[in-house]
Design a protein that fits this description.
heterodimer; A: 177 residues; mainly alpha; 0% strand; globular; B: 195 residues; 9 helices; 74% helix
Chain lengths: 177, 195
């Protein structure tokens, strides 16, 4: 029920906004096309401004992943994880999720296939992916667009959110299954 | 913080590349990732141009200010530093709405627009402000209502009930978002803006 409503809204949202906003503009006597061009001019610059930030972050993450350091990190954390009841299979996903969108998507798909689409691990993995964002990517794009280099507490605050979301995922799926 | 994480990732890659004998892959990943980053940025140009144009109409028509004023009670608590009539309010609302609906093509340009508005209020242009970090906390915790990609993955893997994850995802996202925002609010006093 919620799903159909949200899906319908998602389908209609963009076309409706693209007509509704200029319509209000017309009513308010705005020269809609002229104003559109004026604002749209900035699009190219903004996208180009992001490049250095994105190259910096993605290269570091790409190298880290390719080195295979992740497996050792997971192995080292396994005893701690077993003690807390957090499934060890999900630890690499929780870390990857913050670093790479495509990497964590591939990892989640593997977990779902290997453990089964209706298994507890499969559902936890899917929920973990679905309930979070690629934190470092988002930070690079948004701060890059406004050329902010000193990000202050942005990284720690975001990571607290990611950690809590990961724990909440495991707890909620355990509870509901 | 980002300086340490960035260097840490690079140093770990070199060390483990040597230990694991994966240096060729590390080398390739550096070149490939640089290419991917530029492709992503270039891919943004179209949607960025479209939404910045439409947003300018929305501003000129007074829609952005109106939307911000409408949701001011919530925004006042989240972003106390942003004046009530500032266009940043409306831009933040629009980008979060697009995020919730999973409209990625609109959410990123609208989010960037919101960051630009917040940058207008910033006295130290190279340093993040409190509202910026709070806005980032909302974005990095991913406030999407329907995890469409994951439902697709589960269905493709033969799930009998792929939409089962919608409920847990909404709960987990909500808890994560609240935690991120509270962390941002709590930590802001410890990260002073230095000259």
């Amino acid at each position: 029920m919620i799903k159909t409503v949200v899906e319908e809204i998602s389908k209609w949202a963009i076309p409706v906004m693209l007509v509704f906003i200029p319509l209000i503009g017309m009513i308010r006597k705005v020269k809609v096309y002229d104003v559109f061009i004026d604002g749209a001019k900035e699009g190219f610059d903004v996208a180009v401004k992001i490049i250095p930030f994105l190259v910096g972050i993605l290269v570091a993450i790409g190298m880290f992943r390719a080195s295979g350091a992740m497996d050792l990190l997971t192995g080292a954390m396994k005893p701690i994880m077993d003690a807390t009841g957090f499934p060890a299979e999900l630890v690499p996903l929780a870390i990857l999720r913050t670093l790479t969108g495509s990497g964590s998507l591939a990892f989640t798909t593997d977990l779902v296939k290997n453990h089964g689409a209706d298994s507890i691990i499969g559902r936890m993995a899917a929920t973990m992916y679905g309930s979070s964002e690629t934190t470092f990517f988002v930070l690079a794009v948004y701060f890059g667009a406004v050329q902010v280099k000193k990000t202050r507490h942005a990284v720690p605050a975001a990571l607290v959110g990611d950690l809590v979301a990961a724990i909440a995922t495991v707890a909620v799926v355990y509870w509901l299954m | 913080m980002l300086n340490y994480i960035w260097f840490g990732l690079l140093a770990i890659a070199l060390i483990f590349g040597a230990i694991n004998g994966t240096m060729d892959k590390v080398s390739e990943a550096a070149i490939e990732s640089a290419k991917t980053a530029v492709e992503i940025a270039i891919g943004l140009i179209g949607v960025m141009t479209l939404w910045l144009g439409v947003m300018r109409i929305a501003e000129a028509a007074g829609l952005v200010t109106m939307l911000g004023r409408l949701l001011r009670p919530v925004l006042r608590w989240l972003f106390p530093e942003v004046p009530a009539d500032h266009p940043a309010n409306g831009a933040i609302v629009l980008s979060l709405a697009a995020n919730m609906l999973g409209l990625n093509n609109a959410a990123t340009p609208l989010g960037i627009k919101a960051m630009e508005e917040l940058q207008e209020l910033n006295e130290h242009k190279d340093t993040a402000t409190n509202p910026m970090v709070t806005f980032m906390a909302l974005n990095t915790s991913g406030v999407q209502l329907i995890p469409a990609t994951m439902i697709g993955v589960l269905a493709a893997a033969g799930s009998l009930n792929p939409t089962w994850i919608i409920g847990p995802s909404i709960i987990a996202t909500f808890i994560g978002t609240v935690a991120a925002v509270l962390a941002a609010k709590f930590l802001q006093r410890f990260y002073k803006v230095s000259e």
